[in-house]
Amino acid sequence: MESIFHEKQEGSLCAQHCLNNLLQGEYFSPVELSSIAHQLDEEERMRMAEGGVTSEDYRTFLQQPSGNMDDSGFFSIQVISNALKVWGLELILFNSPEYQRLRIDPINEKSFICNYKEHWFTVRKLGKQWFNLNSLLTGPELISDTYLALFLAQLQQEGYSIFVVKGDLPDCEADQLLQMIRVQQMHRPKLIGEELAQLKEQRVLRTDLERVLEANDGSGMLDEDEEDLQRALALSRQEIDLEDEEADLRRAIQLSMQGSSRNISQDIPQTSGTNLTSEELRKRREAYFENHNSEVYERKF
């Protein structure tokens, strides 16, 4: 999917990302969209002025903030609509009675623009396949033909406004390439925030393991090689029912994070009926990693 253009979220510029992901290129910038918004503001001001520049309605209008943009980078549907007119494209409300009477299968359309609580994103057909190009995702999300109607219905149920994009979209590399091939997606893209949280969790867990190993072994270096450590980290995140070895290790981690200077064997509740010394805890840690490494081997082969 490298050929698919996908702008990821920056600030509140989802309208810009929505348009560029729809058109498959860097067609619009915040400056250009701001210019369209200011033009719309001026047209609205001139219409209000027709009732008299001294009228209460006109003075109230001048005191109100722009309805077409704000300082965060949000742009209205009017801005998006006017931006698309440059390319001869038109927006039609998907759930309007006029459009629904046409009974058009969504698969036969080319693209949709969706909005909910001031967030805009594009769903577009490239080649013969549909993709969710939401800028909040880490990459394009493949949508099957059979799922498209359900996906749009779900968005409507959640309160989204959906607009059909009518007209000929500009040519793009991804559309030409995907006319000839079909892609498969083994893993769905995550939300950007979820990916960052997962990376942060991995860094924190690795740091905690290094701390407890330093506290118990008197060394800041990990005994296991890098591959074994990564396997243990992944398995430790997936474990639900903690065994005694894991419980002891996690309690030691907690103590090391708190900077406790007390003897670990005095603070760990007894899960096996005996006191655990630092040497015993180290051996349990080694047994824990060996056990999980053997599980990884069995799962692989």
Automatic annotation (TrEMBL):
Keyword annotations: Hydrolase, Nucleus, Protease, Repeat, Thiol protease, Transcription, Transcription regulation, Ubl conjugation pathway
Domain Josephin intervals: 1-180
Quaternary assembly: Interacts with STUB1/CHIP (when monoubiquitinated). Interacts with DNA repair proteins RAD23A and RAD23B. Interacts with BECN1 (via its poly-Gln domain). Interacts with PRKN, UBR2, VCP and tubulin.
Reaction(s) this enzyme catalyzes, per UniProt: Thiol-dependent hydrolysis of ester, thioester, amide, peptide and isopeptide bonds formed by the C-terminal Gly of ubiquitin (a 76-residue protein attached to proteins as an intracellular targeting signal)
SMART domains recorded: Josephin, UIM
Gene3D superfamilies with a match to the protein in the record: 3.90.70.40, S15/NS1, RNA-binding (1.10.287.10)
Biological role: Deubiquitinating enzyme involved in protein homeostasis maintenance, transcription, cytoskeleton regulation, myogenesis and degradation of misfolded chaperone substrates. Binds long polyubiquitin chains and trims them, while it has weak or no activity against chains of 4 or less ubiquitins. Involved in degradation of misfolded chaperone substrates via its interaction with STUB1/CHIP: recruited to monoubiquitinated STUB1/CHIP, and restricts the length of ubiquitin chain attached to STUB1/CHIP substrates and preventing further chain extension.
GO molecular function: cysteine-type deubiquitinase activity
Active site feature: 14, 14 (nucleophile), 119 (proton acceptor), 119, 134
Catalytic activity, EC: 3.4.19.12
GO biological process, one term: proteolysis
Alphabetical list of Pfam families matching this protein: Josephin, SUIM_assoc, UIM
Record GO cellular component, one term: lysosomal membrane
Class of enzymatic activity (EC top level): hydrolase
Protein name: Ataxin-3
Membrane topology: Peripheral membrane protein
Subcellular location(s) per record: Lysosome membrane; Nucleus matrix
Entries under InterPro entries matching the protein: Ataxin-3 (IPR033865), Josephin (IPR006155), UIM_dom (IPR003903)
